[in-house]
Amino acid sequence: MPLALYFLGLAVFAMGTSEFMLSGLLADIARDLGVTLPAAGALTSAFAVGMVIGAPLMAVAAMRWSRRDALLVFLVVFLAAHAVGALTVSFPVLLVTRVIAALANAGFLAVAFTAAAALVPPHAKGRATAVLLGGVTLACVAGVPGGALLGQHWGWRSAFWAVVALSAPAVVAVWRSVPAGRGGGEVPGFRDVRAELRVLGRRQPLVLLALCALVNGATFGSFTYLAPLVTEVSGIPERWVPAVLVLFGIGSFAGVTAAGRLADTRPVPLLAVGTVVHLAGWVVLALGAGRPAVVLVLVLVQGALAFAIGSTLVTRVLYAGAGAPMLAGASATAAFNVGASFGPWAGGLTIAAGLGYRSPVWVSAALLAAAVVTGAVALAVARQRASASAATPVPDAVEPGPTPAG
After folding, report:
1. Each residue of 217-271: pLDDT tens digit?
2. Cα 62 vs. chain centroid, distance in angstroms?
3. Phi-psi region of 17 (alpha: psi -120 to 50; beta: other; left: phi over 0)
4. 3-state secondary structure (DSSP) of residue 186
5. In 3D, which of 226, 221, 86 has the Cα closest to residue 147?
6. Entry pTM
7. Contact assessment for residue 78 and residue 104, using Cβ atoms and an 8 Å cutoff
């Protein structure tokens, strides 16, 4: 894999750390800036909404730039937003910086998926995607616990400065290593955007994007509430919660790494078998959450399956959306963040309804069940159409009539 891919992965690691680290910093932020904890929670929602809206909008805006210029602009804006956030004493200003950071993050990911695919041979998009998403999984392993540790010892602002420190070398690395790529040089017209939207409006990309949202919704529907599940239901001491989160991150990294090659060579078996096993894992976790051993094993396994399936789906979106080189990556980014917003929201509703801390896991199981049904129906329809197409006689192949005598 080209070295530039790993530098893109470093930037994704910094961005993933920023996206997830707030879970351990919200109480400190609320106390320091004089707001309630629910109000501080709006920082997480604002980031998620910014990612969903920003992915397609920033991708369209970036069509006029070279890939390297677009990546650098988004990365510098992301860095600056965190520097301002670390310095401000105003909660509204901090909220605005989270929205700006999310827009920059979404734009960077949209362009990075396209740039990564262009850096490798056409048959290696899965491995390139795995390198990028490996940055997200490493954020779960090291970035999120590290941010929480910094917050505990030096305050929440130190975690923001750490993201700045991670982003700065990524700026230099991207500038030095990523090829400029093609730049339109002009503001994209409606015709360009419509052409890419037509590609993504076909059945296969739409099904893949729906699966992205469902799988990621299931993942974050449970991951968001993993700490209370572990402490209140499993009975694991609170001091071990960071270790459990790291365990999930290790599984995620293993899954995305293992799926790197399979996403290019055997995507259908991986998605079909992996999604069914993933669904079974959520059901077993919901039923066996009272047993610490069951929880620890399944946190690792579910993390691996979630990111193996997720990275494969992103890869298939890039293949299916080859005619939409910019908006394919943006759409995958948006779909994943739709899931990341909806899953925790739905899980929170079940907890608020008094259904207990196991209930978000059942929400995850329901979302995976919907993914299994959606995938099975889409595969059956595709095979039926393929069979019908094969059975249709070719118009030019007309049976010859009798040869005239004489």
Report:
1. 998 888 878 878 888 898 988 778 778 878 888 888 888 888 877 777 788 888 8
2. 20
3. alpha
4. coil
5. 86
6. 0.76
7. yes
